[in-house]
Known about the structure:
single chain; alpha/beta; Alpha-Beta Plaits; 2 domains; 6-stranded mixed β-sheet; 10 helices; 28% strand
Amino acid sequence: MPAIETHQLTKRYGSVLAVDRLDLSVEEGVVFGFLGPNGAGKSTTMKMLLGLVRPTAGRANILGRDCRSVYARQAGLVGAMVEEPALYPYLSGRQNLLLLCRLSGAGGDEVDWALEKVGLSEVADRKVSEYSHGMRQRLGIAAALVPKPRLLILDEPASGLDPAGLREVRDLLKGLRDEGLTVLVSSHLLYEVQMTCSHVGLMFNGRMVAAGPVKELLGDEMTTVRVEVDRAAAAVEALAALGVHAEPAQDGTVMLRASREDLPKIVAALVHGGLRVYSVIPYERTLEELYMEHAQPTPRQ
């Protein structure tokens, strides 16, 4: 059973089509990166999944429950942080979480666990007004974790974080994934998504234009390889004898296309031909390149 499943999910605000017939499936136990420019419909989709916005058409299920149903908001199913976390600055981090538990009718047994998960145990009794932006973001994630949900929905959790904060959020999401939690996370930080998420979806103008495992979306079995040798022309000839097409580059290296499995054979052939191989650098496709391929979306209808 998918953790998230939508079929022809649509949302209009008057004449504006915010989400356009979205079909999405997110399996349990994955970290799914939700990518797209501002206004693409990511936050609106998340709000529909959480029952905060009613769809114009289509349907959406989380953990087998209709998102419009009260049963989809049963404690222990879903935790979420959408947009900026709402916190009381004059209360401590711990007091904010305990108050949330009281307002939601949940027990406070998991507060210490959630604070430890996000690395705020040592500052839990300081006022939130003394927290940095990154600490407030992590406290928002802790609030989403308090009910120990099976599904976590995070809207831009790394927004405005410094490099150390980014690493902390990255490690946190990886740890939650390793524990079997399903995470749907939206972000503009493509490098972070590529390092953290097992699956991604690209959304433009309310439409999902690509979705699937990161490796499959990026994966061409053949990769471009730069080989640094002492004699580029001789290397091209040696590779041609092996049936590999290579071209000399202006910097004296050799460029070729090969699978990762063939690289040892290629290096061995060059060395056997009396060439000195100084480096072999495979070039791997990135999410940024995939994103830019879809960066000229068709207009909404």
